[in-house]
Amino acid sequence: MPARFLALHGEKPPSGPYPHMQWVNVDHISWLEPRFSGIEPELHLHARLKVEGMPIIDSWIASVATRAEAETKWQEFLSFIEGESEPSESSGWGSRPSALGQ
User: Fold this and answer.
1) Order of strands, edge to edge, in the sheet holding 5-8?
2) Looking at per-residue confidence, does 72 or 88 come out higher?
3) pLDDT value at position 33?
4) Is 71 contained in some domain?
5) What is the signed CA dihedral for 18, 50, 71, 2, rounded to 10 degrees?
6) I need a surface site. Which of 18, 26, 62, 75 has the fewest CB within 10 A?
7) Which pTM does this prediction carry?
8) Can you tell me the distance from the alpha carbon of 13 to that of 50, in angstroms, rounded to the nearest whole number?
9) Does residue 6 belong to any structural domain of this protein?
10) Structural domain tally of the chain?
11) Is residue 61 situated within a structural domain?
């Protein structure tokens, strides 16, 4: 199975045409939990995760209107991490860096 990579955006939603991203191989994630901030209708979902050899990272996943939407986004995120699905085009957090040529 080819490596799957996760785009980590930092604590704030990406902005501009070339947002800052850090790519990590999902096979190296050793710990993961959801974090929610804000209040409806402006909730923010973050992943707090530990990647082998790196400090704990808080990464923005999505901004949504309701807790139910946040839970759905979290489940989509977990499905990608666990190798059960591919992210949607609009997710912004999972894909393969094209520079790897795979």
Assistant:
1) 22-25, 5-8, 94-95
2) 72
3) 94
4) yes
5) 70
6) 18
7) 0.74
8) 20
9) no
10) 1
11) yes
- Name the residue range of residue 40's domain: 22-86
Q: Is residue 63 part of a domain?
A: yes
| Assigned token pair, 98 | 């094209």
Residue tagged 């799957």 (tokens) = 4
How many angstroms separate the CA atoms of 102 and 73, rounded?
A: 26
Q: Is the distance from CB of 50 to CB of 40 less than 8 angstroms? A: no
Tell me the DSSP string of the chain.
----EEEE--SS---SSS---EEEEGGGEEEEEEEEEEETTEEEEEEEEEETTS--EEEEEEEESSHHHHHHHHHHHHHHHTTS-PPPTTT-SEE--GGG--
Residue among 87, 33, 88 nearest 58 (CA): 33
Q: Examine the pLDDT at 30 and tell me if it is beyond 60.
A: yes
What is the Cα–Cα distance from 34 to 43, expressed in whole angstroms? 13
